[in-house]
Write a structure and sequence with these properties.
Blueprint lengths: L20 H5 L16 E3 L16 E3 L6 H15 L19 H20 L10 H12 E3 L5 E4 L2 H16 L21 H4 L16 H36 L13 H15 L3 E2 L3 H9 L13 H7 L10 H15 L1 E2 L8 E3 L6 E3 L6 H23 L3 H5 L10 E4 L2 E10 L8 E7 L1 H13 L15 H13 L1 H5 L12 H13 L4 H9 L4 H8 L4 H30 L9 H15 L13 H12 L2 E3 L4 E3 L7 H6 L20 E2 L5 H17 L5 H24 L10
Parallel strand pairs: 5-6
Antiparallel strand pairs: 1-2, 3-4, 7-8, 9-10, 10-11, 12-13, 13-14
Helix pairs in contact: 2-3, 3-5, 4-5, 7-12, 7-14, 8-11, 12-14, 12-15, 12-17, 17-18, 18-19, 20-22, 24-25
Length: 732
């Protein structure tokens, strides 16, 4: 740690003087770790137990030396520690202090912005925080609002998040001013009238659509198809390739133990190795192209048969650290003989198995022979494919992916015969205490297999070690897309991936949309994505109101169109003499009569007449809005006070009928139509069958079924009677 100089203090020493930063913040450190003290100018939290893997190393180190003024450096320390330890006796009484500890990432961001603010004050010649006023706060916000080039010309505008950070500096200096011992802002300073930093920065309210856009379909489809193909088709072969690389590293790496730097047996041992190559007809290893370029620059002839031979690899295979150039002349003839006999080839994936191309057109080797860097790069591409499958189909956050460890796959379960449930375990970090909370995700089999492949490709696949660790997805995805679009990806039939942004948040948003557009999808999305509030899921899933609301609006539109078509069909039946039946038939018939009257040319007040379907629909629309479809009737819910179902349920003020409780033979707003006749006739037939099967002693049940049977017959008879142009038939 760097020891701080003695700070000039005003009237009293800091309340944190001599404090152990981690002890005050409640952080746990290993016993052998040096503990950061308040007096230090650098606080290192790298080894704090429970920090999320996602937290970058630079964020774990707080450097106060960038603040040159010793007084302001002390202010920064006091402010940061107060945010880390809100329960400290000197912090808790402050009326506007945070009541919960800020995350290290948040504190690092506050320190960066505070350093920037102090530097800006120094450039403006402000000697003390006592001179900070509303105008200075507004000037700094304006300074941070815009992006300027080298000449100071405005070339753009910063995001609301940047503006909020700038406003938050002034707000923090006001809220914690009583705590500062070396310098502080005036006690009566209230920048922006006491408004919050979010309000000052004009941050979005959160009630609108999530600003993270989903991955475009033209990108998502080829990207996910390529990732699934690499995981399923090439994954097992990549595992074998990883084994080749590890074996070669043990046998021919410069770090291999026991290598000799030379000796009298060098030529003999190399010759014996070359004999083995010839005996097994194995091509000699080839050097990568950049080594060939270096050799040409050193004066090698382009026609030299040894130009591409990896002599260093041969030396290490023979037990020596390198192939000394002075030993090449004595072995050149022997090397050229072996090259002529077996040739030179890239060292990895020489014997490859056949796979079906991604487009299904042919069978071909899963890869061409590779140099070691190419083999390592290909393994990285396959590992990235497993990350893409895992992120796109599981919806896990970046922090949750980075917390995955080898052995995270839970044993498959079979709660129902024929259905397998797969789970993977990780930690929820966002919104959780330090160390995160252990949790599990239910996933589908491709995700489970992608995790399995990542474990098999791991360099140290021991239970408990990090599966991926901290990774930069944007970089990995760029390499993945470039490989898919390269000759290697096109060789195996992968569709090119168009340019466009893809990140883990976009993949999570895409999955949220796909899930939320299904019945009950919003709740399912909330549970699976582990959101705290449904409002968050609504923002993920669509525009204001959420995907469920949009789906409901779409369903309602289809219902409205269907109801209008039904009303029009019944109106045409009325015009043909096929009338409705049931208690509500008279009211509906009167309505149809009034509409029909308006359509008569003689009744029209003007020469124009209404004869098209569109004009008829306009007259029927209001009544169509009251139509509710029952299993054996139409309910015209025009007056809730007359609805029999609401009276029986004791809810006379409801705005919708209880169709499941409908007794259409008695409700004054129910009607029966020819389309309902088969339902009633079938009911009558079944009831008669039940009556015939009842014993003579079951008189109560016989009476109830008899009434039900008579009612069904009566409804069928009424429907037949109302259809004046159709002959009445015996229903049973």
């Amino acid at each position: 740690m760097t020891t701080a100089v003695a700070y000039p203090e005003n009237d009293r020493s800091s309340v944190f003087a001599g404090a152990d930063v981690c002890r005050e913040a409640g952080f746990t450190l290993p016993k052998t770790t040096c503990r950061p003290l308040f007096k230090d100018d650098a606080w290192d939290f790298t080894d704090v137990v429970g920090l999320p893997v996602q937290l970058a190393l630079c964020t774990r180190r707080f450097d106060f030396t960038a603040i040159t003024d010793p007084r302001w450096r002390l202010v920064a320390k006091e402010l940061v520690l107060a945010m880390l330890a809100p329960g400290h006796p000197a912090v808790a009484p402050l009326p506007r202090a945070h009541r919960t500890a800020l995350h290290l990432r948040s504190c690092a961001g506050r320190l960066d912005e505070l350093t920037r603010f102090f530097h800006w004050l120094g450039e403006r010649g402000v000697p003390s925080l006592q001179q900070v006023d509303t105008q200075i706060c507004e000037a700094y916000l304006a300074h941070r609002r815009y992006v300027r080039d080298e000449r100071g010309t405005v070339v753009g505008e910063n995001s609301p998040g940047t503006r909020r950070a700038a406003a938050q500096v002034a707000v923090d200096l006001v809220n914690y001013s009583e705590l500062f011992s070396a310098d502080r802002v005036p006690a009566d300073l209230r920048p922006w009238g006491g408004a919050t930093a979010s309000a000052v920065a004009e941050m979005p309210s959160g009630r609108t659509e999530n600003k993270t856009q989903p991955v475009q379909d033209q990108i998502l489809q080829p990207m996910l198809a390529a990732a699934l193909y690499l995981v399923s088709a090439l994954g097992p072969h990549a595992v074998a390739l990883a084994g080749e690389v590890r074996a070669a590293d043990l046998a021919s790496s410069t770090k291999t133990e026991g290598l000799s730097h030379g000796g009298p047996t060098f030529g003999t041992d190399v010759t014996r190795l070359l004999d083995e190559y010839e005996r097994t007809c194995t091509p000699l290893p080839m050097v990568p192209e950049h080594y060939v370029t270096d050799r040409l620059a050193e004066g090698w002839s382009p026609d030299d048969p040894l130009l591409r031979v990896a002599t260093g690899v041969l030396a290490r295979q023979a037990g020596f650290s390198q192939f000394w150039s002075r030993r090449l002349p004595e072995l050149r003839s022997r090397l050229e003989t072996t090259v002529a006999a077996v040739g030179v080839e890239k060292a990895f994936a020489r014997e490859t198995e056949q796979v079906t191309a991604a487009d299904g057109t042919s069978a071909l080797p899963w890869t061409v022979p590779l140099h070691r860097p190419q083999a390592v790069a290909l393994l990285g591409i396959v590992r990235t494919a497993s990350i893409i499958v895992l992120a796109a189909i599981s919806g896990m956050r970046a922090s949750e992916l980075m917390e995955l460890r080898v052995g995270c796959r839970r044993p498959p379960e079979e709660p129902v015969a024929g259905f397998t449930r797969y789970r993977i375990a990780s930690k929820v970090v966002k919104g959780q205490p330090l160390g995160g909370t252990d949790d599990e995700w239910v996933v589908i089999e491709p995700v489970y297999r992608a995790v399995e492949l990542a474990e098999q490709l791991h360099e140290n696949p021991e239970d408990g070690v990090l599966l991926f660790g901290r990774f930069a997805f944007s970089v990995r995805y760029r390499w993945f897309r470039n490989w898919v679009n390269s000759q290697a990806g096109q060789r195996i039939g992968l569709a090119p991936i168009p340019p466009g942004p893809v990140n883990l948040r976009m993949l999570r948003r895409t999955l949220a949309l796909e899930m939320a557009y299904r019945p009950g999808g919003v709740l399912a999305t909330k549970i699976h994505l582990k959101h705290i509030a449904v409002a968050t899921t609504e923002g993920y899933s669509s525009r204001p109101g959420g995907a469920q609301a949009e789906l409901l609006a779409e369903v309602n539109k289809y219902e409205s169109d269907r109801n209008l078509d039904l009303v029009l069909a019944e109106f045409r039946n009325y015009q043909q003499g096929i009338l409705p039946a049931g208690p509500g038939a008279r009211s509906l018939t009167e309505f149809f009569a009034s509409v029909d009257e308006k359509l008569e040319p003689t009744a029209a007040p003007a020469p124009r007449t209404q004869r098209s379907d569109r004009d008829v629909l306009n007259l029927l629309t209001k009544r169509a809005k009251t139509l509710h479809i029952g299993p054996a009737n139409f309910c015209w819910f025009t007056d809730p006070s007359r609805a029999l179902c609401l009276k029986l349920a004791g809810t006379p003020t409801a705005d919708r009928p209880l169709v499941g409780m409908c007794d259409s033979a008695r409700c004054p707003q129910a009607t029966h139509h020819p389309c309902h006749r088969p339902v009633w006739a079938e009911h009558a037939e079944r009831t008669r069958t039940f009556l015939g099967d009842l014993g003579k002693t079951r008189r109560t049940e016989h009476a109830r079924l008899r009434n039900d049977y008579d009612r069904a017959l009566r409804v069928v008879a009424e429907i037949d009677a109302a259809a004046t142009d159709q002959p009445s038939e015996d229903p049973v």
